[in-house]
Fold this sequence. Notes:
By secondary structure, the protein is an alpha/beta fold. It has 13 helices and 26 strands. A hairpin with a 4-residue loop joins strand 25 (495-503) and strand 26.
Amino acid sequence: MTRCSNSGGGKKGTITVGRGTTTGTQNRNCGTGVAVANCTGSGDNGTDSSSSSNSSSSNSSRDRHPASRLCGGADREVSVMARIFVEAYGCSASFADSEMISGIIRNGGHTLAEDPSQSDLNLIVTCSVKDATAKRMLHRIKSLGAADEPLVVAGCLPKAEPRTVQRAAGTASMMGPGSIGQTLSIVQSALGGIRTVDIADRQEPKVGLPKVRLNPAVGIIEIASGCMSECTFCQTKLAKGGLTSYRPGQIVRQAKSEVADGCKEIWLTSTDNGCYGLDIGTDLPELVDAVSDAVPDGCMIRVGMMNPMYMPKIRGRLLESLKSDKVYKFLHVPVQSGSDRVLREMARGHTADTFRRVVGEARRMFPDITISTDVIVGFPSETESEFEDTARLLWETTPDIVNLSKYSARPGTDAAERPDRVDPSEIKRRSRVMTGQVARISEESNRRWIGWRGPVLFDELTESGIRGRNHAYKPIYLAGGAGGGGGQEHLLGQWRTVRITGSGRNYLSGLIAA
């Protein structure tokens, strides 16, 4: 190891793109290292709660491997080949961003570090959709910011709440969801001691970029950025802005590239798939058909979340698209509330009956389709009767998956300014009641699959063992599998016939059939 530090003062530097303020110090550190990132997360709503404190020094000494560098005069940019650790949390679009960030970093000559203790720079891709999630993100940011290494905070949180991030880690650089194309310059500046805040809105397509996949069996493709909705509770619009759909041809080429690299499952994801294409003269069913035609037999397509307000326009043709053997029989349609008045207060643009019709038509065409939805309890002004409306809607439609959230005010949203909030203890009570209801619905839904026998694509190694999906996107674990795959890693990306022997609230278990 070569230790090289600058114990003197540095040259002050400021780079700001988009809203926000920044200060920084440019230090002429002459040692460097080699490295980049390992992206980790625990699923679509993955979070972490590491301990932390809040300080960082851009003048501190660091042990580094020898690497190429430029250490010229005070105005020369420091060019280093470094070890960089990347960590990701949030939705599938956030994970896709982290894959592209890691790919850009590696293509830039850096290498990926396995953990922060081995890195020259840490980069965290954040989520800010819920208050509890944001708090966990800030806890992790403080922890990483307390290390000697520079920190870059990426994703939705720095775009939606840059001042909050700055309070948590005052020397951290920031990059928003639209700044992926600037990754190398932001990283390079941070390694040179310059703090950058780049949270500008850009219209650059997130397709065709290099990536380091979190899962070699799954190709995540962002089909658009932003959305057309104006939900009063949601901070995502603040982070990602209005809808920018990517061209179908670009997405089809990306899907072919994912398959050529060995992926067996393609995820089509965005802030809201339901409005895809409405800004460029196409729509989601046309895209699903195009991708389905482009990928070979044996590959599967998962269509991500779509808001109900757009479903009346595309419902019939989308369900026709799902008839393809290459498309999972799966719909994620977040209803949020069973009360039409509350839905109007949320500015959701749909009614409870919109959701009923989607579920009814989907199940008539595909009786075993998996329906996923999201529900918020305790939205400002929600009465007990309106909470019961939501409970009745869930009993009527029996969605297989319900992502249940207690309302929390997110800074910058319209709902956060409302004075008629529901008492927190009442929100907890409603959440507790509905959690029990959702558990009963999910358990009964999964129990019906016991005895089923059919093809399963194994698409993920988890701590509980290898997991696969059947045609309805049901998560299926091999019974008796040990943690970390249990020696079943060879099955990743493979099809096997499985017989379902057991079930729980969130999973099915089975055996490979003889």
